[in-house]
Amino acid sequence: MSLFFDIKEKIVKSGRVNQLLKKSCPNCDSDLVLTDLKQWFSLFLIPLFPFYRVDTYYHCSNCNATYTRTIGNSLIEGTADKVSVEAERKKLFCYTLFACMTHMANIDGEITENEAIEIDRMRNKFKDYKADIDEVIYKVKESDNPEEFVYAILRQSSVRLTSKDIMSIIGESAKVLLADEKITKEEERLLKEYLIVCGIPKDLYSTIVGK
Ligand SMILES: [Zn+2]
Q: Do residues 145 and 139 touch, judged by C-beta distance below 8 A?
């Protein structure tokens, strides 16, 4: 039997309040559309039916950025400006991403050369946030209880980032592990724990890591 869970985005039915935010994307000024992220139940690679709604957020089809409904509301009400919304989101994304990557790479007691290369490669992608990234890398390495430290960051981030962002963070963390070898059982357990901490079904693990 080939049963598995997949994820799909589906635009929320038009006519809902604030379903479309015209020219509102903080990243590129395109339209934002209210979108459901749903877990689908599939059989033999054929999606059968939506099983669970993971999250609802605003999606920009131009730049692919996603924003929580809370952020969407602040844009509608004008209580937050786009520049600071985007800076905050990217900063939090970086902080969480490098917390997870460092934790994962360091889980067996040392960061190998290949893992360090992979972390550096990502670090160069986010030059504007270098100070935050270096801070969180240092904190994870020096923490007496890195697992709890990283879980706490994930818990806070899962409120302010969309599930789509969180899943991309977990996917990138898995890539760091794959730089070296295949993912061990212990590493898989931790990646699933990350999902659970963020309220995302752990069955989505193979979909996220497979990508
Ligand atoms: Zn955009």
A: no
Per-residue pLDDT of 116-165, as tens digits, reads: 999 999 999 999 999 999 999 999 999 999 999 999 999 999 999 999 99
Domain ranges for the chain, please list them.
3-79, 83-210
Ligand 1 center to residue 89 CA distance, Å? 13
Compute the distance from residue 23 Cα to the ligand 1 centre, in Å: 9
Amino acid at 173: S
Query: In 46-132, which ranges are E strands?
Result: 46-60, 66-67
Cα 100 to ligand 1 centre (Å): 25
5 backbone dihedrals φ, ψ, rounded to 5°: -105, 140
CATH entry 1.10.3680 includes domain 83-210: yes
What is the distance in A from the centroid of ligand 1 to the CA of 59?
8
